[in-house]
Design goal:
By secondary structure, the chain is of the alpha/beta class. The protein has two domains: about 5-95 and about 180-285, Aspartate Aminotransferase, domain 2; about 290-425, Aspartate Aminotransferase, domain 1, CATH 3.90.1150. Helix content is about 35%, strand content about 15%. The protein has helices spanning about 5-15, 40-45, 60-75, 85-95, 110-120, 135-145, 165-175, 190, 235-240, 250-255, 260-270, 275-285, 290-310, 330-335, 350-360, 390-395, 410-425; strands at about 80-85, 105, 130, 150-155, 155, 160-165, 180-185, 200-205, 220-225, 315-320, 340-345, 365, 375-380, 400-405. Strands 1-9-8-7-4-2-3 form a seven-stranded mixed sheet, with helices on both faces. A five-stranded mixed sheet has the order 10-11-14-13-12. Helix 8 links the parallel strand 7 (about 180-185) and strand 8. Helix 1 runs antiparallel to helix 3, helix 13 (about 290-310) packs parallel to helix 17 and helix 15 (about 350-360) crosses helix 17 (about 410-425). The protein is globular and about 75 Å long. It starts with 6 loop residues before the first helix and ends with a helix. The structure holds pyridoxal-5'-phosphate. Pyridoxal-5'-phosphate binds near residues 158 and 185.
Length: about 425
Amino acid sequence: MTDSHGFDTVQIHAGANPDPATGARQVPIYQTTAYVFRDAEHAAKLFNLQEVGYIYSRLTNPTVAALQDRMAALEGGAGAVCCSSGHAAQIMALFPLMGPGRNIVASTRLYGGTVTQFSQTIKRFGWSCTFVDFDDTDAVKAAIDDDTRAVFCESIANPGGYITDLDAIAAIADEAGLPLIVDNTSATPYLCRPIEHGATLVVHSMTKFLTGNGTVMGGVIVDSGKFDWSASDKFPSLSEPEPAYHGLRFHETFGALAFTFHGIAIGLRDLGMTLNPQAAHYTLMGIETLSLRMQKHVENAMEVAGWLENHDAVEAVTYAGLPSSPYHDRVDKICPKGAGGLFTVSLKGGYDACVKFVDALEIFSHVANLGDTRSLVIHSASTTHRQLTPEQQEAAGAGPNVVRISIGIEDPKDLIADLDQALKKAS
Ligand SMILES: *Cc1c(COP(=O)(O)O)cnc(C)c1O
């Protein structure tokens, strides 16, 4: 695929040439663990990274490679590494940058699971995270210190329709000589292309809109290929000799593909957070219709959010597509095709009304997932955010009276009728 092809063409064709062995038009599921070497010399070259090819499916697999190529093309990056889940992708993105004592600066407005991963689990590696309000650019600058190795945010933040001013944050990261990592899960490359706004790395939970129908887990890191890893001594994994590969320097050897090669040759090899070829296949099939689905998600979300906002039982709706949102102005700049399919609604009846509301819904399913063709809801305060204090729940946009809604691609009239009957039962 070349840059001249449109998104609708790239989402179907990138990475998917007819199978060289059989001519199969759809990308086959290469259900194999290992690949026969041509001879001993070929094997040695592959293991030395002197020749690129398939060795063992923990590192590379042709079905997964097709998905990597497609995601790199859709995000406008140099290369991509697929992982077993979105959370795996976040660890894999940080792994080459970090070390004991190093920190990241991240937005307070993140997916709940990411807050837990960054505030608790990464401490086991000796890493830490400083959370700041990314609307306060002075606070972001002030949080960066000599041990900071990355800046992290979401383009459209889960759950509440918050849109990050990516250009402003990228300028701060750039000034500090740090990579900006953007989680683009809620927007997808159809609505937002973070690299065009200065992101160094883009991560995704492919589990959500990319696969699109709630079947498989997956994650990906797309590298812009634009960051100069050798400009400072902050990123020795990429700029200094690697003992496990006879002193090879990834940045000097692979240039714009340094991060991608490191992710596969070190990250997947040693952390083993590999995507399986079956999951890659489902995700490739999902991506073929990404633009069509995202258009419909946005159209439906606009209609449903607008209707909800005017309902008597509703206190507020946080959807950046609505003119009432404080982030409405950023839609044109950051995600001009729409603000996605995810928002929250708060009910005047509080916790009890929310619980009755989710129980009364018939088309919407109460699940811990989003970005499905089906419409989904979750009452965070009684589920995913149950362990947090009331203050933490409020800060996360998951107060007791808040329900998160992921709008599917059903007929919006049916969605509104379902919400209407459930709101009546709840109040
Ligand atoms: C779901 C999600 C993740 C985590 O992805 P998994 O595939 O569930 O591991 C990370 N970020 C965002 C924005 C998400 O919605």
